[in-house]
Amino acid sequence: MIDTTLTSTARADARIDPGHPFAAHLRAATALAGSRPHRAWTPEDGPLPALYLSHGAPMLFEMPGWMDELHAWAQRLPRPRGIVVVSAHWERAPTSLSTPTPSDLVYDFGGFAPMYFQMRYDTPDATDLSRQVAGMMPAGEELHQHRSRGLDHGAWVPLKIMYPEADVPVVQMSMPTHDPGRLMQLGRRLRDLRAQGVLVIGSGYMTHGLPYLDWSRPDQVPGWSSDFDLWAADALRTGDVDELASYRDRAPGMPYAHPTVEHFTPLFVTLGAADDPTAPPATAIDGFEIGLSKRSFQVV
Known about the structure:
Number of helices: 10
Strand content: 5-15%
Order of helices and strands: HHEHEEHEHEHEHHHHEEEE
Distance between the termini: 46 Å
Number of strands: 10
Radius of gyration: 18 Å
């Protein structure tokens, strides 16, 4: 019998098969929290970084190594007061904000096990954070506040792994354009949130050429994936934002690495939220899974 005193998120998690890799992840995270509670951010910590993370699909819940990397990354940072995330999976203009109150998740995927469509991630009320984000947008620029749209899987899948207790308010912002300059401006408007203990996240995937993978050999890394990853790593290391912004024409592996570009362009929101977008980022995760680059980083 499931304990009725549990949160809605924890009740849903309790239904997961104990032998599933994500159930093991939850047990390990709970044990760690019991022995070493996650310290909350304080002003003395200074601004939190902005993150670009490669998020994967629901199959990420079946990848223990990648889950460990994401959770360890979150643990190295103070627990944020709030999270603002721009995901590859919400392309909408005008700029829009998700509902600030707990809501049904957006299960924007297909072909996965039923358990993934029963998951919950009911984070605390984010009304204050949502108002703060809205106030950072330029006067006269249209902004739409959704009253029912919850988090899509580009937001809730990685966050459920990084912060499984669902104890941090989350606001998702749509990606209104793919223009690098405009997305950097959007990130720049969010920059001041970092000094208030809010984590700004661009959620995508460093390579995302799903149609061109050889599913009979999932461990093989295609040349277009490794070439694009090396190019991006070098441009980030040298602070060449112009090179990154010219990815359509200059990046090796295009268009196979990104037949559509929405998984790369959240990177520019992250760079825009940095104090200096040309400063080398700190790589948190690299390597490949099913042939795609997991490269994820943080900037200050």
